[in-house]
Amino acid sequence: MRRIACLALAALATTACGDNAPTKEEIDDAKARVERLAASTHQVRGALEVLGLMPVYTCGEPRRSFLNQAVAGLSSTVGCATARVEALDDVTDAVVVSFPSGGCDVHGLRLTGRAVLEYRGGEDLMEMSADLREMAVDGQTLQAKVGYGTCADETRVFAEVEGQVPGREGHSFYINSRVGKREGLPLIGGTTLVFDGPGELTGPNGTDRVTLTSLLYEVGNYLPKEGTALVETADGHRLNLAFQPVLWRVGKVEVTVDEKDPVTVPVVR
Fold first, then answer.
1. What's the Cα-to-Cα distance from 34 to each of 15, 54, 63, rounded to whole Å?
2. pTM of this structure
3. Signal peptide span per the entry (predicted)?
4. What is the residue extent of each domain of the chain?
5. Which has the closest alpha carbon to 258: 241, 239, 233?
6. d(CA 225, CA 203)
7. Is 259 in a helix, a strand, or coil?
8. What is the pLDDT along the chain (269 residues), one digit of tens a residue?
9. What is the enclosing helix (H) or strand (E) of 32?
10. Residue 21 backbone phi and psi in degrees, to 5
11. What are the residues whose beta carbons fall under 8 Å from the beta carbon of 199, sequence distance 6 or more?
12. In b/e form, how buried is each residue of 178-205, taking b as 16+ CB within 10 angstroms?
């Protein structure tokens, strides 16, 4: 009987088959939660990619001069998007980036609608924030606040994003992410994104609390390449998710349910 149970588990995931192995029901539940989390963080990455369309402000440069050059550069590198600079007041300019109705593919994401990026200050301190409520990532509209602060010994990036979990009817997410800066890598606009922060996944059975730690995304990929996530479920369980390069290549993640033996499950987009 134990061998039959192990074979059934192996059809879904790679796992140890000792007395401490999770049940098939626990693996099924964990896999569904992992897929909802992956779909949600993919949307957060999409919001952050919008920031990457424009270079980070160069401290000491006049704000309007920087934006005019940045908009010209965006038009040449992302031909399907259009951008213009609008003066809002003496210390604030906005860049309005518009995408065609058929969508614009950027780093494996389809962007539609428009984004409004506001730049306030300049030279000594620049605060940039983006309103993404009029755009969609892969067909999903977002309630998103993303931006950064730089100069005056300050460098930070944030993304506060909420919306419906793509492909999972009745499920929504909220993630408040801080984007990390790794030495030698650009803050935004490079080939990787690293972010941390709390979040929530809400569905018919309640709300799971999520803590993301050092999730590293390679541009154009659906799953994070490395990092961890802790999911504290509405029904009192703890799922520890470990994203690893060797598993990332085959679309899998290691999951530990409570204190049981870890299992490796595939993530279906």
1. 16, 32, 42
2. 0.82
3. 1-21
4. 24-182+192-266
5. 239
6. 27
7. coil
8. 444 444 444 444 555 566 799 999 999 999 999 999 999 998 888 887 777 788 888 888 999 999 999 999 888 888 889 999 999 999 999 999 999 989 988 877 889 999 999 999 988 888 989 888 898 888 888 888 888 888 866 667 888 999 999 889 999 999 998 876 555 444 566 677 788 899 999 999 999 999 999 988 887 788 999 999 999 999 999 999 999 999 999 999 999 999 999 999 999 88
9. helix 24-52
10. -70, 145
11. 40, 173, 174, 175, 176, 177, 209, 210, 211, 212
12. ebbeeeeeebbeeeebbbbbebebbbee
82-89 and 252-257 beta bridge pairing: unpaired
Encoding tokens for residue 56? 């980070």
Strand ranges inside the chain, DSSP E: 14-15, 82-89, 92-106, 109-122, 125-131, 135-137, 140-141, 143-151, 154-164, 172-180, 192-203, 206-218, 226-232, 238-243, 252-257, 263-266
| Token pair listed for 257 | 């349910």
Cα dihedral 61, 65, 70, 76 in deg (nearest 10): -140
Enter the DSSP assignment of 235. Answer: T
Q: Residue 158: exposed, middle, or buried by beta-carbon count in 10 A (0-12, 13-18, 19+)?
A: middle
Q: Say how far apart CA 241 and CA 35 lie, in whole Å.
A: 11
156 touches 192 (CB < 8 A):
no
d(CA 269, CA 251): 9
Residue 214 in 3-state DSSP?
A: strand
